Amino acid sequence: EFVPAGTPVRVTRVEGARIFVRPDTDPVQE
């Protein structure tokens, strides 16, 4: 998942070479 540059993001999980991130302001929990 790609986000606009400068957007605060939090790494939610890492699988192999994939890094999953989401907007740090997103209240949704996976």
Structure description:
This protein has 30 residues and is mainly beta. It is built from no helices and 2 strands. A two-stranded antiparallel sheet has the order 1-2. The chain is flat.
Class derived from helix and strand content: mainly beta
Major β-sheet annotation: 2 strands, antiparallel
What is the straight-line distance between the termini? 14 Å
Strand content: 35-45%
How would the global form be characterised? flat
| Major sheet strand order | 1-2
The helix tally amounts to 0
Q: How much is the average pLDDT?
A: 66
In sequence order, what are the helices and strands, one letter per element?
EE
| Helical percentage | under 10%
Unreliable residue stretches: none
- What's the total count of β strands? 2
| Cα Rg | 9 Å
Summarize the structure.
With 30 residues, the chain is mostly beta strands.
Which helices and strands, and how do they pair?
Blueprint: E1 9-15, E2 18-23
Antiparallel strand pairs: 1-2
Structural descriptors:
30 residues; mainly beta; 0% helix; two-stranded antiparallel ribbon
